[in-house]
Design goal:
- The protein has 583 residues and is mainly beta.
- It has four domains: 11-28 and 420-582, Immunoglobulins (Immunoglobulin-like, Sandwich), CATH 2.60.40; 43-129, Sandwich (Immunoglobulin-like), CATH 2.60.40.10; 134-319, Immunoglobulin-like, CATH 2.60.40; 326-412, Immunoglobulins (Immunoglobulin-like, Sandwich).
- It contains two helices and 50 strands.
- The protein has a four-stranded mixed β-sheet, with no helix packed on it. Strands 12-19-18-15 form a four-stranded mixed β-sheet, with no helix packed on it. Strands 1-50-47 form a three-stranded antiparallel β-sheet, with no helix packed on it.
Length: 583
């Protein structure tokens, strides 16, 4: 080394981390500690469970408040109704209770345990409701020989669609439409072997209806023969099937007596837009769209005219079911901290354009736009929101003012593996000497690489440049800057947009012709973190040669002998204070 040798200067390196020796050490709280500070004990909601209806698929979720995921569930007392099962991971009860297995009431106790070992128990009652429907009419009108006969059977209280069929052997001349339940009888065939001049003779048949849930009901009928002769034509009074918007529609008017052919017409009122009446068959078909619905009830005066020009009129009401708007999806994907999130909510039913709104607090930096876009804003949902749930009510309003609602929870997943908050550990810089080569690093940990370093405000001395990619300040300040002050705020941001800032200020030292080391203490390394700092010198005659005269650098760090830079990645599990003498 050229120039004077300095032994009276030393640098102290303080490493935060795990101290394997005795004594007090400084520690840095990790993310788990921050999370535990906001921890709330897990608890089960006492809300009543939805009742079970026999022969209808059942699904219910046990509601849990707070706690730390993952959760586990168990049935600690009582039993579920036969046919239902309990998922111990999700808390979902589902299955199918059959009629033969049903009881009126079940009581049981459920327990939940969270990841912290905290538990809660809650007793629940589950009611079993019977399920059934009935067939109508009770009695079929009599048949007139050589007159057309048709009537629509009804499954009152059943869940559509319904499948109709005969049970057992049925003689020729009977026909039933499997979809609509319209029964047609050819009297000349059915009663061909009977005395047509005597009324009261009957033909037997049994009809079975099966609804969407697989429930079956059978009903026997006896068809009687009326005395031969003309019977006035008549429309059979029956409630018309209601119209469901955006669903294909078909309904047939039932006609009795008269002499074919028939013509069915509307003499007063009109059908909803999208439906039409076939006069020859008495069938209404078509599709009513949600956008075309203007009334929910239509009154129709219907007339039937037979081949003898005889007529009959009756008034029917055609109802429009209020359409429903369903928001999709019902279950929102989980939000991952520090990760972009984007979802466009959709709708089933309704008339566009749609406007979405939300009630309830959402995770930080997650917003719902009026068009249904659920998006995160930079720098996305923070790590502090990991493993949380946010109950919200989402409402959509269509162009006609009809609304649909979705009650759900926005779940924030656990933190990504190896993630930690972005932190700046450098709070001060080594002395900057006018006219002397300078290099010092800003030490950071955490965040998602690559990192970006910027001067947010203020400035460093002229001639000192901050590297945008490494965070190293380097250069040679002007000799004329000696004795001047500087102040700057540095912003460090990661790949997700998360950022932190740190202010630096100091005085530019006057240069000296006597060689000396300016660094009494170096910036603090962090165990397991990247590190960059510099041993600054002034005076003498350059170039300089730097060496460690006594002591040693922490494992993972090296000294650049030509510029005095100490850099590298500090080994994990180090802790304590080290003293080095440089030359």
């Amino acid at each position: 080394m050229r120039g004077a040798t300095m032994y009276n200067r030393f640098a102290a390196l303080l490493i935060f981390g795990v101290n394997t020796s005795c004594g007090d050490v400084a520690t840095i709280s990790d993310q788990a500690a921050a999370t535990s500070a906001n921890y709330k004990p897990v608890s089960l909601s006492p809300d009543d469970l939805l009742p079970v209806t026999v022969n209808i698929p059942y699904k219910e979720v046990i509601i849990v408040n707070d706690g730390l995921h993952p959760l586990s569930f168990s049935l600690v007392k009582g039993v579920l109704p036969p046919g239902l099962k309990f998922d111990q991971k999700t808390g979902i009860i589902d299955g199918l209770v059959k009629d033969s297995e049903a009881a009126k009431q079940y009581s049981f106790t459920i327990r939940v345990d969270d990841a912290n070992g905290v538990s809660d128990e809650q007793s629940f009652g589950l009611k079993i409701n019977p399920y059934k429907f009935v067939l109508g009419p009770d009695v079929l009108p009599p048949v007139v020989i050589n007159s057309p006969y048709q009537i629509r059977l009804e499954a009152i209280g059943a869940v559509e669609p319904i499948n109709w069929e005969f049970v057992g052997d049925v003689m020729s001349g009977f026909d039933i439409d499997a979809n609509s339940g319209v029964l047609k009888i050819d009297s000349s065939i059915v009663f061909s072997r009977r005395n047509q001049g005597v009324s009261g003779e009957g033909a037997k048949l049994t009809v079975r209806a099966q609804d969407k849930n697989g429930v079956e009901i059978t009903k026997p009928y006896v068809v009687t023969l009326q005395t031969a002769g003309y019977v006035p034509v008549q429309l059979v009074e029956a409630d018309l099937m209601p119209v469901v918007p955006d669903t294909s529609y078909k309904e047939i008017f039932s006609i009795m007596g008269g002499s074919p052919p028939y013509a069915v017409t509307i003499v007063k009122g009109e059908l909803p837009k999208g439906l039409e009446l076939d006069a020859a068959t008495g069938t209404i078909t078509g599709l009513v769209t949600s956008s075309s619905v203007s009334n929910l009830q239509y009154v129709l005066q219907i007339q039937v005219t037979d081949g003898l020009k005889k007529t009959d009129e009756k008034v029917f009401k055609l109802l429009i079911k209020p359409y429903q708007i369903v928001i999709t999806p019902a279950d929102l994907p989980d939000v991952v901290p520090m990760t972009p999130y984007g979802l466009k909510l959709g709708t089933v039913g309704g008339v566009g354009p749609f406007t979405f709104s939300i009630v309830g607090e959402t995770p930080p930096r997650l917003k719902l736009a009026a068009d249904g876009s659920l998006l995160t804003t930079l720098p996305h949902v923070p790590l502090s929101a990991a493993s949380t749930e946010w109950p919200v009510d989402i409402t959509v309003t269509d162009a006609k003012g009809m609304t649909g609602k979705l009650k759900t929870k926005i779940k924030v997943a656990a933190s990504p593996a190896n993630s930690a908050p972005l932190t700046i550990h450098s709070s001060s810089l080594p002395t900057i000497v006018a006219g002397a080569t300078y290099s010092a690093g800003i030490v950071t940990t955490g965040g998602v690489p690559p990192l970006k370093f910027q001067v947010q405000s203020g400035s460093f001395p002229q001639g000192i440049i901050l590297s945008e990619t490494t965070g190293v300040l380097s250069g040679t300040p002007l000799v004329s800057s000696g004795g001047s002050q500087f102040a700057a705020i540095v912003k460090v941001s990661d790949a997700t947009g998360e950022f932190v800032v740190q202010s630096f200020a100091g005085l530019v030292s006057q240069g000296s012709s006597v060689l000396k080391i300016l660094s009494d203490t170096l910036s603090t390394p962090v165990a397991g973190g990247a590190y960059a700092s510099v041993v600054a010198a002034t005076g003498g005659q350059q170039p300089y040669v730097f060496t460690v005269q006594s002591g040693s650098l922490p494992q993972g760090l090296t000294l650049n002998s030509s510029n005095g830079t100490i850099g590298g990645t500090v080994a994990p599990n180090l802790g304590g204070v080290g003293y080095l003498f440089f030359r």
